[in-house]
Amino acid sequence: MEIGPIVRALLRNKLGAVLIAAQIAFTMTVIINAVFIINERSRLMARPSGLDEANIFHVVNIGYGENYREDIVIEDDLAMLRQMPGVRSASSINAIPVSGGGSSTGIRATDDPDTASTPTAIYRADEQIFETLGLNLIAGEYFRAADMRIRSEPGETLADKAVVSAALAEELFPDLSVNEVVGRTAWLPGVVPIQIVGVVERLQAAWPNASFVENSIVVPELYIDTFTRYIVRAEPGRRDSLMAEVEEMLASRPVDRVIRDMESLEQTRESSYRIDSAMSTILSIVIVTLIFINSMGIVGLAVFSINRRRKQIGTRRALGATRPAILRYFMLENFFITSIGVVIGAVLTIALSIVLTTNFNMPTMAWYYTPIGAVLLVLIGQLAALGPSTRAAAIEPAIATRSV
Amino acid sequence: MFFYYVRLAALSYKRNPILSTLMVLAVAIGIGAYMVVFTLNYTMGGDPIPHKSAQLFHVQLDNGDPDRENDPPDQLTYIDAMALQEAGRAFRQTASSKLSVIVEPTNPEIRPFSVIGRGAFADFFPMFDVPFLYGQGWNAEADENIEQVVVLSRETNERLFGGANSVGETVVLAGMNFQVTGVLDYWDPVPKFYDVNNGPFDSGEALYIPWHHTVQSDLPRTGNTNCWKPLEGTGQEAFLNSECVWIQYWVELRSRAEEEDYLSFLNAYTNEQRNLGRFQREQNNKLFDVQERMIEQEVLPDETRILSVLAAMLLAVCLLNTIGLLLAKFLGKSAEIGARQALGAHKGSLFVQHVIEAGFIGLLGGLIGLVLAYFGLEGIKILIGDQITVSDWVHLDVPVVLVTITLAIGCTIVAGLYPIWRACNINPAIHLKTQ
């Protein structure tokens, strides 16, 4: 093997090697951390909300004027919505899961207000909400129409029954199975007791970035106000046409109101995670750009160093070195340089990852990112060096006899 | 000589077009990416009201939960905001909060629509130097008498009156007749410093009305409301008397002395309230000026800060690349340098020549980088869509363009220092011999 000559040759021309190694180190640092951030964001975006997202849409109704009777309007609207062909189910709810805006509260497993409370999203909705959201009941039962409480002013929760998400049940009663949680009482602020009648497999809170995103409680309560949110689940394939029909139907009724924010749940999700997907796109562009620049740098410097050594190459060929030997020489040289680069890069990668974890509330990077990244970068380096090295191997031995 | 060297640089570019273009591209990409992030940070983290940011103070009173250790709430309760407003101890002061209101246009062809408005006191407009297109804000009397007056944003005036001077016209809000006293010009401070807890990059409100209407007509609040303590009872009365915070409070103080006076006034006020059973935590009232408030609220999103680090490293890679390529290029024309030296050029003029050649590459890279930065920013606007609603919130302005070009030329010359030094120090004899 030519390891000795390669290393000695490298030592005579350190700067070129150092430049390439440093580029590779920085590139590796950025790429691995960027890939980690992208994966982390896609993991967040892939979490299911627990809803039948493909078929759900929602709309806001704001009444005004002396003649607006919210109690009558809401009841009539819901009755008409439920009769529309293509509507599977319709409800009124205070907030839309995943939308970024909603209501939260603290809940306790005891009636002692001095103990720590568990944060959770609270949804106030009618008894048909479970069918409308398409939730999956795993224990107990849903609340019924007879459990509904109507309120028209802010204040403590009036309802005395609730359905909770499995994550909240687990956090409130860590020692109990979901079936045992059914029938238990929990307490809302103001020491309001509430009986858990059912547990659903999953229902996300309204804020995708909240630490308690899987904690939700649904209470049978309607807040009668001029501001109302309707949520509708369509039969499969009917959503888009229904959105237009529902808007038309609500607007055409002789009621003084404004209908706004008609949106499918898919649109809601898209806009809630807009920043995350934008970040992923930007980082992907950064990665591609870096690989491109890096390869260009490797090619540029390799071509230069080969051109400077044309005569030596020719001499080696004349002395009996085969083409594969020349090729191997330059590939090995590149391998050494990139290896030094990825070793420094591994240190920098881990350092940057620690900086990101401590400053930006990001989880720790899994161990395998760095070695996989290192291997890939060495491969990219070899690929970039292949062209120039092949050209070097093509140099004729006769060149040794010429003056330049 | 300068122009001669520039011409030499252009000639040298043409002689080695692939290597030179690679260098220009590397500089352009590095600078372009860096400038995109720089512009984001510069716009989003900039001073929204530079001439006054040291005189405007955001008031925080610590009425938080005594059983928890957290920062004082960002907003005030109704009780406290009204007490401060009545005391009127600052040069100017305003409570303000967001509300949702239905606008019924007098023109029957325009359907009623709902907008986000802001309840504020008369001082709001002079305090924040709000620009008016027509008319002006209301006066303190209008606040006191809860007059039905309104200031419209430029967009709302466009929608209701087709952009005409509407001062004196009537607008029906929440079923009541309001008289227009003024119309704003475009006003979208970035960040929206006077209300960062309801979206620091949201656009401004559609209209402004005297704050007391919020309570008098019980208009729906749309901003952040935080309650650590359950209400005692139900209804509006219970809400107003609660520890729920929902009102932003700003004061204008003209000097250090006024600032100290005001803080001691706040402390005296909360001490008095403490004796009444409220404010059960250690004294921790805050008076932050605009810049301090922006920093404390971490208005800059994590994303742009992460991107700053990554963009700096991308720029580093590009510059390392440029060093290597410049080295290759300069050493590649050793023969020419040898010839010039033999003809009498001394090291100083060789140095200047190559600095200019590196600067020439940097200038080209900077110009292309600007184009890349422009498209990068447009791309980011498309990606973010309506998540950040301030219209035209990022753009390349003159300072950014100047910084870009300077940075590009500067970086390339710095990257070129070693290659230049090598080029100036070659031995002419060796290179002349091989000719």
Describe the SSE topology.
The complex is a heterodimer of chains A (404) and B (435).
Chain A: H1 3-12, H2 14-46, E1 56-63, H3 70-83, E2 87-92, E3 104-107, E4 118-125, H4 129-133, E5 137-140, E6 149-151, E7 161-165, H5 166-172, H6 178-181, E8 185-188, E9 192-200, E10 216-223, E11 227-234, H7 239-252, E12 257-264, H8 265-272, H9 274-308, H10 310-318, H11 323-360, H12 369-393
Parallel strand pairs in A: 4-10, 6-10, 7-9
Antiparallel strand pairs in A: 1-11, 1-12, 2-11, 3-4, 5-9, 7-10, 8-9
Helix pairs in contact in A: 1-11, 2-9, 2-11, 2-12, 9-12, 11-12
Chain B: H1 2-15, H2 17-44, E1 56-60, H3 78-87, E2 92-104, E3 113-120, H4 124-127, E4 132-135, H5 140-144, E5 149-152, H6 154-161, E6 170-173, E7 176-184, E8 207-210, H7 212-216, H8 235-240, E9 248-252, H9 256-275, E10 286-289, H10 290-296, H11 302-332, H12 334-342, H13 347-384, H14 398-424, H15 428-433
Parallel strand pairs in B: 3-8, 5-7
Antiparallel strand pairs in B: 1-9, 1-10, 2-3, 2-6, 2-9, 4-7, 5-8, 6-7
